[in-house]
Amino acid sequence: MHQNWWVSCLTESPTIVGELEKSVRRVCGKLLRQGYEAVLDAAEFELDWDEDEFTRELVKHMNNINETEFPIPISIHWDEKGKSQKNLDVSTHPSRAQRVDITLDYVRSDGTTEYWLEAKRVSNSDTALYRKYWKEGVRRFIDGEYADKFSFAGMIAYVLSGGIDKNVSELEDRCSAYKSRMLLKQGWEYSHSEGEIEVYRTHHCRDELSDIVLDHHLLNFTES
């Protein structure tokens, strides 16, 4: 029922949708920022972790903050492939349990909206990661594997070397290079900062689905 309301809203009231998107982005962005800050403060991460290990650590702290600081907690889930809370507790590598991607359910009085987040590592010392970011991350939204019923979602980039500026430049260059394959309607552009997280935005067409706007959240784990 709630999901049908959202689809109807997409087609009938662009103004309402725009305000709803802003509200969801604001609340979910705040939770992501606080989780990221908690990961940095705990300083238990390793730069040789893969994205699943980083994401498990991030979600652990987001859950703790969500339960104590948000008046109406956001429901934190894994993606549609069956992720569950038990992954936070396994002692094995998370990819051996289930691969971790984040879905945030933002509950309002008139329904629930999901904010999907796909996480990838980026590093200027490993250029193959930029290709994976776009072709194995962004592309999943464009193909409708993720967030097929929603017009906005997000990517998380774990910056492991080179600092923000160099990685932003590389991501923007790849965005331009992959323009046709990513069905770009609006290219890479700066959106805003959420604390220490820089957020960029791209707009993509999708076959037989509504366009999708992606937020790109850059989480810096280096001091360079």
Folded structure, characterized:
The protein has one domain. Helix 2 (14-42) crosses helix 3 (51-69). It is 42% helix and 26% strand. It has 6 helices and 7 strands.
End-to-end separation? 48 Å
Q: What is the 3D shape?
A: globular
User: What amount of the residues lies in strands?
Assistant: 25-35%
Mean pLDDT: 83
Element-by-element helix/strand order: HHHEHEEHEHEEE
User: Please, how many domains?
Assistant: 1
Number of helices: 6
Structural class comes to alpha/beta
Largest sheet: 7 strands, mixed
Percent helix: 40-55%
Q: Any idea what the radius of gyration is?
A: 17 Å
**Are there runs of 5+ residues with pLDDT below 50, and where?**
1-14, 79-88, 92-100
Tell me the number of strands. Answer: 7
Overview in brief:
The protein has helices spanning 2-12, 14-42, 51-69, 94-97, 128-142, 163-177; strands spanning 75-77, 102-108, 111-122, 152-159, 184-194, 197-204, 212-220. The chain is α/β, with parallel strands linked by helices and 224 residues long. The chain is globular and about 45 Å long.
Task: Name its key features.
7 strands, disordered N terminus, globular, 26% strand, 7-stranded mixed beta sheet, 6 helices, alpha/beta, 224 residues
